[in-house]
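Lab meeting, item 3. Inverse folding demo.
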């Protein structure tokens, strides 16, 4: 198994669909409407950046897409399956098998080596040790970390740590890569390298959905979704790579 995927087809299918999704939180006696009725489609093989000011709903959106939270109302489907109706065990299984997460703060386990961090999802999937080790070596080599497999996170630079996090996110060959401010803790040059890597993975067919507040980072995506007050305000570009606003 390797990280290469078939290039996205010209007529890419609708992979992730949100239909009139709302999310309301109860803060004491006050209701906070984090999402106020979002209808949005993400195509297979697309690369979208979700942008917006603090409180716009972009982080809530990513949490819902990552099955870390549930919509209050509305429907969320992935690959035609109604995700919003799944119980907790089924959501955990979906996350483990179909989603890869990349975080601003890396979220590596400091006590584990690079190899062990990459292997972690495969442990939960029940992979044999030999197969898991082979997969970890393949991904580490792909990320330029083949000489760092026995190192621990604190022995690595920030860029190297994020590459380990990306390798871990790819270990289960996910359907969707979800990135939350993936360059937020990196200098500009290293951040650009990480974005080049995400673009390369997207070019190989991986679906990437990213939250960022940085215009320069969002420019790497084919489509930019601007949110405000829990609603989609503007969409620039599209997932087939052609520029121009969409409705």
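The presenter then showed the designed sequence:
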């Amino acid at each position: 198994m390797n990280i290469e995927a078939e290039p996205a087809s010209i007529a890419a299918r609708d992979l992730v669909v949100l239909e009139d999704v709302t999310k309301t939180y109860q803060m004491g006696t006050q209701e906070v409407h984090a999402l106020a009725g979002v209808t949005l489609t993400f195509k297979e093989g697309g690369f979208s950046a979700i942008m917006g000011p603090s409180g716009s709903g972009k982080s809530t959106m990513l949490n819902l897409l990552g099955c870390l939270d549930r919509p209050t109302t509305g429907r969320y489907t992935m690959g035609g399956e109604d995700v919003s109706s799944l119980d907790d065990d089924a959501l955990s299984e979906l996350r483990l098998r179909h989603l890869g997460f990349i975080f601003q703060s890396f979220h590596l386990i400091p006590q584990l080596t690079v190899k062990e961090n990459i292997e972690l999802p495969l442990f939960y999937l029940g992979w044999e040790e030999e197969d898991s080790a082979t997969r970890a070596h393949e991904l580490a080599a792909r990320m330029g970390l083949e000489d760092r497999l026995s190192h621990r996170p604190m022995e690595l630079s920030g860029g190297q740590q994020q590459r380990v996090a990306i390798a871990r996110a790819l270990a289960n060959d996910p359907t969707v890569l979800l990135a939350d401010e993936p360059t937020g803790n990196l200098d500009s040059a290293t951040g650009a390298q990480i974005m080049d890597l995400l673009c390369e993975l997207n070019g190989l067919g991986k679906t990437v959905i990213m939250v960022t507040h940085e215009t320069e980072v969002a420019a790497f995506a084919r489509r930019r979704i601007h949110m405000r007050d829990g609603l989609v305000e503007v969409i620039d570009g599209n997932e087939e790579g052609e520029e121009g606003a969409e409705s």
